[in-house]
Amino acid sequence: MSPEALVQPFPAIATSSLSTASPFSPEDFNEHVMTTYARYPIALERGSGCRVWDTEGREYLDFVAGIATCTLGHAHPVMVQAVTEQIQTLHHVSNLYYVPQQGALAKWLVEHSCADRVFFCNSGAEANEGAIKLARKYAHEVLNIADPVVITAHASFHGRTLATITATGQPKYQKGFSPLVPGFHYVPYNDIAALETALDTLDSTERRVAAIMLEALQGEGGVRPGDRDYFQRVRQLCDERGILLILDEVQVGMGRSGQLWGYENLGIEPDIFTSAKGLGGGIPIGAMLCKSFCNVFQPGDHASTFGGNPFACGVALSVCQTIEQDHLLSNVRDRGEQLRSGLQAIAQRFPSAITEVRGWGLINGLELAADSPLTASAVVQSAMDQGLLLVPAGPKVVRFVPPLIVTEADVNQALSAIEQAFTVLSPE
User: Fold this and answer.
1) Rounded CA gap, 377 and 394, in Å?
2) What is the rounded CA–CA span in Å between residue 303 and residue 401?
3) Contacts of 323 (CB under 8 A, 6+ apart)
4) What CATH number has the domain spanning 15-73+328-425?
5) Choosing from 63, 119, 120, 157, which is the catalytic residue?
6) DSSP H helices in 203-309
7) Under 8 Å between Cβ of 365 and 398
8) What is the pLDDT of residues 244-257, one digit of tens each?
9) What kind and span of H or E run contains 66?
10) Does 248 qualify as catalytic in the annotation?
């Protein structure tokens, strides 16, 4: 074979030559896939914009968006183009080499945030794991702390690795996985007195505090926004004591709060923060971002085989640019206000079932009354029957996290569906 033949591109592959999946069978699925999820009884097979269709052909309005992940909805033309161009050019190479798409995405993120440096990985859990590792190394090398502690909040959620479920202040996620990773301490969220007490207690021992790790808004913990005064005092305490402030922006970041980053709603800047979910619009990517002064990683300290590859970064950059060019933050704020206003009207109609509506932008929670027999899962199922996909945020909170491209008509349709769901479940 000639040298020229060795470098010829692969011929186009006809679609008909590719294997086709057999018709979907829940029984076959359950026989082969680990049961780590309690799945709702539908199988989704395609989507467009804010809508998806199941294998039976039924249409749903998607206010889950892959749990705050599908920033631009489904099959967005910009993403289709980015995916197509990148997969035809170069989809993966090792980080042993420079990756231009990674550099371009990092530059965009730095120019649109308070960060100076970015590390790329595959998920929010990995991004948070990287933040914890960076904080520990900073503690050892800069703060001279032998036994560093990271303070996190009750009801937080930071991921499913051993370190990040330990950081997660919810025992239900930790059950069965002991021994957990040492070096974490929990305090109530938005409670500055409890935090100050913990800092004074821990710093009087050898287990000194190296970092405070919080969500700007607790997502899995019930869609609970951070209190602005609380976070400004946390920032002050960190500055006074030389403690790193880490913000987990995995769910609330990338425009979902109505600002590009959740911390912008709080009037502070973190030292380290994390992103994933909406960053890639559904393509797996995570990022850990930090300021220069705490960038203590050296070659060999941390790595990720797939992190920052050309495919993920090329698509993520297209998502970032579309958020900016299409002025989606304005849409997030407008549609968020519309949604909250509509949900508050529904809450007034069903006062014995609904106690509160809260959130930022397009991450909103509807809390059910503690003494009501209704559960979030029951409401989600009833809404699904009305053609609306929602997701719980705990046993008593229903979460609304549609794509950032959601329209006024979409929100009105969602409000009509959720009102009908409550009419069925809790007629008043």
Assistant:
1) 9
2) 31
3) 71, 254, 255, 260, 329, 404
4) 3.90.1150.10
5) 157
6) 228-241
7) yes
8) 999 999 999 999 99
9) helix 65-68
10) yes
| 427 prior amide bond cis, ω within 30 | no
- Polymer length of the chain: 428
Selection from 260, 258, 231, 252 nearest residue 111 by Cα: 260
**Integer CA distances (angstroms), 338 to 200, 345, 350, 360, 414, in order:** 44, 11, 19, 12, 11
CATH number of 80-325: 3.40.640.10
Give the dihedral sign, CA 204/296/135/274: positive
Backbone phi and psi for residue 119, each to the nearest 5 degrees, phi listed first? -115, 130
The DSSP secondary-structure symbol of 299 reads T
Tell me if the pTM is above 0.90.
yes
Asked if residues 231 and 153 have their Cβ atoms less than 8 Å apart, the reply is no
Reduced to 3 states, what is the DSSP secondary structure of residue 344?
helix
User: What is the rounded CA–CA span in Å between residue 144 and residue 102?
Assistant: 33
157 is catalytic: yes
Q: Where are the CATH 3.90.1150.10 domain residues in the chain?
A: 15-73+328-425
Classified as helix, coil or strand, 44 is strand
**Residue 311 is among the residues annotated as catalytic for this protein:** no
The H-or-E segment that residue 89 falls in is helix 77-89
Q: Which two tokens stand for residue 178?
A: 């002991």
Per annotation, catalytic residue among 62, 248, 271, 410: 248
Backbone torsions φ then ψ of 215, nearest 5 degrees: -90, 140
Q: From residue 218, how far is each of 160, 249, 285 by CA, in Å?
A: 16, 10, 21
Q: Which residue has the tokens 């900016």?
A: 324
Catalytic annotation, pick one of 137, 277, 311, 410: 277
Where are the domain boundaries for CATH 3.40.640.10 in the chain?
80-325
pLDDT by residue (tens digit) across 303-342? 999 999 999 999 999 999 999 999 999 999 999 999 999 9
